[in-house]
Amino acid sequence: MNSSDTQATAILGGGCFWCLEAVYDSLAGVISVESGYAGGHLDRPSYEDICGGDTGHAEVVRITYDPQVLSYADLLEVFFAIHDPTTLNAQGNDIGTQYRSVIFHHDAEQKAAAEGAIRRLTEARVFPRPIVTEVTAAPEFFPAEDYHQEYFERNPRQPYCQYVVAPKVAKFRQKFATRLKG
User: Fold this and answer.
1) Model confidence over 147-177: pLDDT tens digits?
2) Which residue among 1, 36, 86, 160 has the highest number of C-beta atoms inside a 10 angstrom radius?
3) For residues 58 and 97, is the Cβ–Cβ distance under 8 A?
């Protein structure tokens, strides 16, 4: 069995990548999570580049997971539970296109899963406003600087982590307690 049979990749953006990374790191079936940038027009952007909001990049996480343990649909279920997919280019106080809700699909199957999830959530009226999550083909992924990787784990006492990341992680752990890594 080659590695492509036991690993798959997803790229998701739902606000600050520190929040998404902290959540997905603790999900059973996730092999690794890397914070980075995708979807813009600048080659090899830096954090400072994307903070201006004019490069077109979103803060994203690249998730490598075992599809025999965790499905793409499972990743999307968590994704829609941990951020607000109805706010255009914003999550809480984080405002700008770099904080948009976006699913970068790698193939037709992922695209169909993402569009299906949005359709089901819309039909079920889970959110009070329309979902504005972009679903688009995966562009090149650029890893964020080293200091952004595992940020919450390394900086739990940092004010943003205490007031923004920690509550999202706690909500996730409560809602998905049976899906946490052992």
Assistant:
1) 999 999 999 999 999 999 999 999 999 999 9
2) 36
3) yes
Q: Outline where DSSP puts E strands in 19-178.
A: 30-38, 58-65, 90-91, 94-95, 101-105, 134-137, 141-143
* pLDDT for residue 1: 42
Print burial letters for 110-122: b (CB count within 10 Å at least 16), e (below 16): bbebbeebbeebe
pTM passes above 0.85: yes
Dig out the tokens for 97 from the structure: 């296109």
Domains of the chain: 3-161 (3.30.1060.10)
Helices and strands of the chain, counted as H and E runs: 8, 8
| C-alpha to C-alpha distances, 147 to 28, 66, 130, 132, 154, nearest whole angstrom | 25, 26, 35, 30, 9
User: Is there a contact between 134 and 100 (Cβ–Cβ < 8 Å)?
Assistant: yes
16 catalytically annotated: yes
Collect all residues with Cβ–Cβ distance below 8 Å to 91 and sequence separation of at least 6. Answer: 14, 15, 16, 19, 83, 84, 99, 101
In angstroms, the Cα distances linking 88 to 100, 144, 166 are 6, 23, 23
Q: Which residue in 140, 75, 68 sits closest to 114, CA to CA?
A: 75
